[in-house]
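Write out this protein's structure.
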Amino acid sequence: MDDRFMFEIKYEEAVLKSAVRQYMFRAIILEHPWVIAIGFSGAIFWAIATIVDRDFTFVTGLFLGVMLAELAFLGFIGWSHWRGMREKLRTMTNPQAAVHLGDDDIAIEADTGSTRVKWTTIKDVWRLKKVWLLMLARNQFITLPLVGVPGDALAFITAKVARRPF
């Protein structure tokens, strides 16, 4: 592989935790705003109608139970992402990695192993505050902390990754 850029990145727990929160916010709210708007509007309308009519029936309880189950499910997704990142971080003796950007792919090498991903596999880049997420699928991404990453390398990544549908 002919490296165009090579640099070191450092994984920090606070940055990764923030990345998971931002990922969840974007994945749920920003990527699906109409679904969220319609769902919350319907839930608020249902709650107001229930209180006004004093209709505390089985259907109302079932609806509220489904709403709580959905919120719990979203919480579980966020927790599982955070748990996976934290476990990977804890298995590393040195929480940093070497990143190699080539014309055909990106390679990341850490003390726990290495991976090489073709640019065509990366569907999108989510540019968050302190980290970029290289999206491989809706629910799978490579975390790239930005501290110490040269600006030219970020521009190179942006040029290589064309937004593709999931």
